[in-house]
Write a structure and sequence with these properties.
Blueprint lengths: L4 E2 L14 E5 L5 E6 L5 E6 L12 H15 L4 E2 L8 H4 L18
Antiparallel strand pairs: 1-5, 2-3, 3-4
Length: 110
Amino acid sequence: MAYIGIYPNKENVRIYGRDRVFEYLTGGKFTGSTFCKTCGVHVFSNIYGPPISIFDKLPAERKERALSVYYKNMAMQPLNLRAIEDVKLDTLRPLIKREDEGTDGYGLDP
């Protein structure tokens, strides 16, 4: 029953019931995770991002790439696929791509 994240553009998403979630901000408060007030399920995230002025500190050769990633991230609306009404996960399983990026060299002891 783990979170299955999908990341469409905000312009393609309409969220109803924002008044029925609470938001939890962590760290730099660049992202807020929302949870259902009734059952506690993670429903979606709000992307706030760092202040745009932070990119002024980057060298010119890195700034353009960093800003393109920033604008792409700011345009997305992360959703928990499991929290979307009438979604049949079995029909989507062939389309779901699992990523284990960053796990090289890690393992669980038996």
